[in-house]
């Protein structure tokens, strides 16, 4: 792991050294072994059953989950005292990445090991863990999570499901309907949120056999057809009082804190799916001939391959950079302390911004990969016998899962501004200095003798651009900025692309050390493409935010600053794209 503890969003105002970030090249032997075990499980046991799974034969799904339990893949996050492995977040995310190539089954796995298991791990009493956790991490029982309702999605606290204490004080009677429950028809235990006395938002552990609980029919979905998605209907469902999870009225803590890990895990999973999808596209491009040549030899196809491999490189880099930061912070906590999981959740919550970034950036990277893979396949991309069609359908849900991308985008600047007001991030003073810097010309040039000097300068400049734009927006709107959603979305686009660019750059610097010439060329190409594409996105978002929040002389000054801070002149951009594409075409896969 890295040597320095970072605070959430600190990357915006500090310079980070490659030595301070964790990268995929640093996986331990144990992590690589778990990744290999997961990969072989998918290839040998899941994919042969994929057609049956896609037609909603859930018997094989349940059997495969039990097999996951035998392999230890369900117990990575569970404490040792209850039979778990209690491994780090990096290992958990790596397993999620590797299982993602299984298609719909990965959704079943992710829901079970994430939102299905973690509420019990983090908030359950000793008695609750003793009763349920062993069954869950062995695969004997499947777990599900019931938060969304027909009229409350992103507004989770607007839930209508109610819980009333029975006259004898032994049960809570739950009423309401939960919508879009993943694993709904195959789950044995549900984490269900309801309002005690229609006011106190609370979580409950509810068994499948509970009197008054019924499961609705399977939803007919666009994609991820092999996962169960149903309503859970509560009609005076009798839940023992000892099955209250956490504190009454504190269910929001469970709901929102679990989502941070869920967002990061989704980021890791879609990286795995993107690698699998682009590999299919690359192999097809090497086989398909038009005009007497393989289509992979054409520049139009090469550019798609290069751009998507660069996106995946950045997505993978940022996911494991975040897991490294979380694991470093968790390693400082005294295990076994009575309030261990309270501190644990606080440690994860510190990186709520970064988890939201992972969810948005990675899901949108996969969306572009899936779209381009269909395009590479051409007409065959629309035919079910070819793999592109399934990637395209299955991808779409990821921008809705774990909070829509719009909600996550709003969270990013919202949390930054909230922490700024509390003094946790010195954004205001940094923004003032950035404004002052606009008044004086800069003659500083990148040192060409240093690796990625131009890219380092570009990232540093984009941070300055963010400070200028965000500082002006905060000053103009003050507390009312939360109502300016269009502006917040633009600021979020700046932040997430800066983080992705920097993550790719820092990883690239590390990878150059001791690499072969071919590997160095591919890494340098990926960093160049990531920086160029990211710089363009940040520049567009910055201008949009400037027009939303400034006018007159102030607008003119900010636009001038944006032009100055988004000036990046990549060396041999076209050659970089061709180098990256050629490396992928030769390897017939995502090359890193």
Automatic annotation (TrEMBL):
Subunit structure comment from the entry: Homotetramer.
Domain Acyl-CoA oxidase/dehydrogenase middle residues, every copy: 144-236
Keywords: FAD, Flavoprotein, Oxidoreductase
Domain Acyl-CoA dehydrogenase/oxidase C-terminal: residue ranges: 249-412
Residues of the Acyl-CoA dehydrogenase/oxidase N-terminal domain: 28-140
Protein name, as recorded: Acyl-CoA dehydrogenase family protein
A GO molecular-function descriptor: acyl-CoA dehydrogenase activity
Gene3D superfamilies, per the entry: Acyl-CoA dehydrogenase/oxidase, N-terminal domain, Butyryl-CoA Dehydrogenase, subunit A, domain 2, Butyryl-CoA Dehydrogenase, subunit A, domain 3
Catalytic reactions on record: a 2,3-saturated acyl-CoA + A = a 2,3-dehydroacyl-CoA + AH2
Acyl-CoA dehydrogenase-like C-terminal domain segment(s): 461-564
Family the UniProt entry places it in: Belongs to the acyl-CoA dehydrogenase family.
Entry keyword annotation includes Zinc-finger: no
Cofactor section: FAD
């Amino acid at each position: 792991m890295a040597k320095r503890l970072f605070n959430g969003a600190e990357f915006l105002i500090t310079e980070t050294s490659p030595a301070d970030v964790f990268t995929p090249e640093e996986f331990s032997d144990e992590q690589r072994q778990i990744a290999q075990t997961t990969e072989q499980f998918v290839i040998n046991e899941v994919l042969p059953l994929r057609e049956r799974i896609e037609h909603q034969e859930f018997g094989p799904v349940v059997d495969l989950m039990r097999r996951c339990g035998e392999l230890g893949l369900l117990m990575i996050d569970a404490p040792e005292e209850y039979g778990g492995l209690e491994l780090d977040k990096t290992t958990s995310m790596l397993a999620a990445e590797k299982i993602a190539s299984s298609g719909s089954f990965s959704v079943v796995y992710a829901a079970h090991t994430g939102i299905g298991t973690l509420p019990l791990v983090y908030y359950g009493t000793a008695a609750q863990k003793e009763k349920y956790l062993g069954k869950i991490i062995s695969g004997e029982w499947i777990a599900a999570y019931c938060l969304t309702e027909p009229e409350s999605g992103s507004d989770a606290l607007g839930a209508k499901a109610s819980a009333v204490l029975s006259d004898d004080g032994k049960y809570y009677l739950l009423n309401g309907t939960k919508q879009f429950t993943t694993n709904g028809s195959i789950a044995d235990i549900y984490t269900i949120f309801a309002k005690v006395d229609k006011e106190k938002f609370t979580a409950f552990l509810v068994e499948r056999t509970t009197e008054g609980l019924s499961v609705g029919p399977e939803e007919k979905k666009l994609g991820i057809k092999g996962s169960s998605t149903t309503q859970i209907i509560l009609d005076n469902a009798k839940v023992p009082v000892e099955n209250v999870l956490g504190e009454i009225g504190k269910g929001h803590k469970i709901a929102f804190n679990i989502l941070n890990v869920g967002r990061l895990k989704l980021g890791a999973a879609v990286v795995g799916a993107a690698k699998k999808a682009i590999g299919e596209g690359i192999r097809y491009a090497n086989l398909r001939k038009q005009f007497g040549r393989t289509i992979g030899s054409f520049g139009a196809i090469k550019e798609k391959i290069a751009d998507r491999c660069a996106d995946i490189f950045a997505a993978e880099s940022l996911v494991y950079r975040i897991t490294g930061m979380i694991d470093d912070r968790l390693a400082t906590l005294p295990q076994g302390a009575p309030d261990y999981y309270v501190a644990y959740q606080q440690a994860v919550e510190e990186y709520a911004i970064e988890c939201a970034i992972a969810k948005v950036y990675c899901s949108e990277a996969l969306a572009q990969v899936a779209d381009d893979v269909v395009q590479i396949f051409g007409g065959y991309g629309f035919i079910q016998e070819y793999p592109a069609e399934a990637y395209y359908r299955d991808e779409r849900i990821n921008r809705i899962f774990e909070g829509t991308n719009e909600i996550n985008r709003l969270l990013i600047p919202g949390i930054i501004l909230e922490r700024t007001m509390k003094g946790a991030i010195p954004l205001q003073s940094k923004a003032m200095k950035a404004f002052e810097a606009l008044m004086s010309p800069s003659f500083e040039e990148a040192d060409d003798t240093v690796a990625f000097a131009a890219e380092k300068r570009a990232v540093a400049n984009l941070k300055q651009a963010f400070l200028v734009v965000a500082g002006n927006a905060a000053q103009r709107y003050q507390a009312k900025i939360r109502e300016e959603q269009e502006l917040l979305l633009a600021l979020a686009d700046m932040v997430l692309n800066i983080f992705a660019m920097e993550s790719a750059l820092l990883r690239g610097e590390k990878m150059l050390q001791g690499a072969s010439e071919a590997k160095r060329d591919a890494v340098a190409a990926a960093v160049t493409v990531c920086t160029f594409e990211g710089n363009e996105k940040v520049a567009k978002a910055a201008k949009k935010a400037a027009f939303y929040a400034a006018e007159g002389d102030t607008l003119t000054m900010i636009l001038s600053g944006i032009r100055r801070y988004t000036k990046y002149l990549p060396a041999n951009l076209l050659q970089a794209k061709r180098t990256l594409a050629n490396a992928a075409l030769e390897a017939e896969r995502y090359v890193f």
